Amino acid sequence: MKAYVLxxxxxxxxxxxxxxxxxxxxxxxSVSAMDAxxxxxxxxxxxxGQTLDAIGSLVTDAIGIIDGVTRTTTCVAVTVx
Length: 81
Fold this sequence. Notes:
4 strands, four-stranded antiparallel sheet, single chain, 26% helix, 2 helices, alpha+beta, globular
């Protein structure tokens, strides 16, 4: 499964969050790509995992607890058509 995680950071914490996101790993899910973006979010991370629960655990237990991350929004990728 794949999901896009939209990440907001606290002012002045963007570089620190980027370094921490690069180290995020889990046995069942991982960050496969990440970009800094303009707009209401600071980063968009592509997260891939074996199950939706694995992705959810990575977001809540590894990404959401990073010092400087103020909010995450997870968008699960789906197949259309």
